[in-house]
Design a protein that fits this description.
Layout: H1 2-22, H2 34-51, H3 53-56, H4 76-84, H5 101-112, H6 129-137, H7 161-172, H8 183-195, H9 201-209, H10 215-224, H11 227-240, H12 259-270, H13 275-284, H14 292-298, H15 314-334, H16 353-363, E1 377-379, H17 384-414, E2 426-435, E3 451-454, E4 471-481, E5 485-493, E6 497-501, E7 504-509, E8 519-525, E9 528-538, E10 545-550, E11 558-560, H18 564-567, H19 572-578, H20 580-593, E12 601-603, E13 614-617, E14 625-629, H21 678-686, H22 694-707, H23 728-741, H24 746-754, H25 767-772, E15 785-786, H26 789-800, H27 818-821, H28 838-841, H29 857-861, H30 880-888, H31 890-907, H32 911-923, H33 929-944, H34 949-960, H35 964-967, E16 968-969
Antiparallel strand pairs: 1-12, 2-3, 2-4, 4-9, 5-8, 5-10, 6-7, 6-9, 10-11, 13-14, 15-16
Coiled coil: 387-414
Domain Cytochrome c: 31-115
Organism: Armatimonas rosea
Length: 970
Amino acid sequence: MRRQLFGAVGALGLAAMAAMATGKSQEPAKTLTAEQTAFFESKVRPLILAKCEGCHGEAGASAGLRLDKAIPADKLAAVLQRVKGEGGKPRMPLNNAPLSPGEVAVVAEWTKQGGFWPASAAAPNGVGSALFAMGKTHWAFQPVKRVAPPTVKSAAWVRNPIDAFVLAKLEAKNLKPSPTATRRELIRRVTYDLTGLPPTPEEVAAFEADKAPDAYEKLVDRLLASPHYGEKWGRQWLDLMRYAETNSYERDNPKPQPWRYRDYVIKSFNADKPYDRFVKEQLAGDELPDGGNDGLLATGFYRLGIWDDEPTDREQARYDGLDDIVTTVGQTFMGLTFDCARCHNHKIDPILQKDYYKLVSFFNGINHFRNGGPTDEKPIFENEAQRADYLKRVDEKKQKLDALQLQLKALENAAPSADPSAGSDLDDLTYKYYRDTFEKLPSFDTLKPERTGPVPSKRFDITLRDRDSAIGFVFEGTLVVPKAGRYTFFLDSDDGSRLVVNGQELIKHDGIHGQGNEQSKAVQLEAGRVPIRLEYFQNQFGIGLAVSWAGPGPRAPRRLLSTSTSNGPEGQASVAVANPEYARLKKQLEDLKNQPVAVDRALCVTEMDQPQETFVLLRGSAAAPADKVEPGWPEILGGGDAKLPGERISVAPSTGEPVRGGRPSIPAAQLSESSSGRRLTLASWIASPDNKLTGRVMANRVWQGHFGRGIVRSASNFGLGGDSPTHPELLDYLASSFTHELGWSVKKLHKLILTSNTYKQSSRSNPVALKADPQNNLFWRMDMRRLTAEELRDSVLAVCGNLNPKLYGPSVYPDIPAEVLHGQSVPGKDWYPDRMKPEDKARRSIYIFVKRSLIFPLMDSFDMAETDRTTPSRFSSTQPTQALTTLNGKFFHDQAKVLAARLDKESNGNLEQFVARGLTLATQRPPTPSEITRGLKLIKTFESQKMSTEQAKSTFCLLTLNLNEFMYLD
């Protein structure tokens, strides 16, 4: 009944919202032509939502004007006047940048046509019919076409089909492509684009001297085969996967070995793993029959998001985690902002709220992240011998545990038993059960329990749990005190516990430890009924709770308040006090339990025993479920429910033992939890060559990596609110080639793009083309770009000669200024430069530990990707802290000294050679005589100002590393 009520109320609320969003004014809506509808949905609505809705939308009507409905006729002229900034009044919008000339033109056309707003007649799917009509014809929702290259006039310029598509657009505008870049510009450009590193001067000279017709093609092949290729393109993928190695929020604690996912990505790019396989492994590698280690490692992407270990509302936090996954998957693989439909139907795209929750349901069986333990980590092995050795050591540990337990049992049987009275001393006992990872006793009353209820055994009973780790209980009831007197309470627990009697905290165990350290306390009680409360949590590696009490008198027997299955054999508590050997063996047992068998582990996804039911959540609130949904496809992409496996996939348990008999299983070497197969169903749909989005999105990302922007500039938004492709036929040609002829090979796609004459163009400007196409939408030249943060740091190390090219492995901690570290809540927490050798600190930037609350300062200043959400493209800002970093920062000063030492060695004391070699290393070209003269004069000037020769040379090197030619790429 409650759910039906929410559904009814929600339907009314959503209907009202739809009326406002689509502009149901009191006046009859004008019937629009198809052209007007298309113009409104593609141009007007996105502009209003982005720039105007805050002041003139549903939330308010500043100056009496609402722009979420048709504009009154008497306000049309004023609206256009204000966005132009005319009439002596402030330009609108007040709180945003002024509208661009193109945006002003949209407003002008809209007001000219009467400031209309489409009627809000609902489509059968609950979305405005105009939106769905637009969606049906939107380019991204059409099948990918196998497009033939167009015929062009200047056919001699066409090196491959890409050039024909680009040249056709240029010729239509009477424009010409730019001349080919110089060979030095080409090798520098393509080396950075494929490896993120500068070529050496020797490599440049060799390429310039190589007159073979295939010299450039061989260069591309060599760079694609370089192990540094995976580091460059792996970093771009990590941007999309919101890669970081800590959890964010106040403590920002480290995740367990996330670097293994980073290495998986680098290795996958280096191996040219087919992109469809790459997609499937990340979404469902644990469900693939041949997933192996990569299948586990790849699913680590699920665990990379931010995680609050103490949320106010744990169920809402769980849905926040699922939203993070849907956001990342939807934008990265499909280029759609499904996350905008979490609380309501999408405002710009034809995506239903129900579509969003269909995607949620694919993931609603995965275990919520707990920052480690069996639900977050699984063993990985290089070969069967490693696996067999691990299983042998697991068995040896089990035998030791069994032997210790037999010894403890013998001591318990030899000791006097505690009084297991049949009658319970507790009454009206209830419990609250929590599932989460605790390291200290939390404030349970601020948390939402998983379930509550009466305790049938009328004793503190942790057998009510459904697993042995990451759990908590709160028991509350009444203690029946038979007579007044002084009573002693005894408490022991594997992890944290707190006993409160009659409102007084008597005993508290906190933290993670193990049983064997029983505490007791006496308290005076009156006869009758007194309140009693017990709190308990279990982290992992053990389980146990023992609670008892003894009445007045030194020889009064203990009576159990916990079940014997909670605290082990019934005589255990008294044995621990009477026999020191028992306590010693008990501690030995707990220590052994807490020592995991050494093995490499993958941070990965695991699933619950059964997927949870999924409901549409009104306004995105976990407390307001409405209609139930099943895994399925978005309506605009075909709709319908997904065909899920009829039988669950049975695989090996976390101990490493294979499951034998019964249901079919994934090979035991994979050591994965049972899985529903839902994610593999989704992965197969996304990675299908017939998917309308997947190939386009990835082809566009590769293009973006080489041209600085995609054929679709909004690389993760192919919806109606995103940018239209400047060359839609070219995008379809690339996508169809990628998924069919090239077999999903990213390296082959690189080569296709890099060997085009379009890519080889110079970056020099052309006044005619610049006036006709200032944003270079037609690709009439190559855009100049600044080096990325990683490229800049890695180039400094490469030029100075101390770059450590080591691949893979745990992350490193370069030095960070003390002033920055002191800005943390706990200065220096989780940053360990003292553990690093100097050569480790000089590794490539992709291997620097990514701490969300402490981004490496150089990376932060030069626009490193955001770590909390998927990042499709980075900003390229110019701001004062960059110059302060490169001119005053310790890293650049230290590296300038390293470069000076290198130049001293290579110039044999010749100052002119010192200057020439330094400029050559930085710019990858021989300096001109005038540049050498200026360098010599600069060093002499420094010396005349009382700098030592060593300081003067180091300062020259510092300025060399700050040259624009060093930091920018033609």
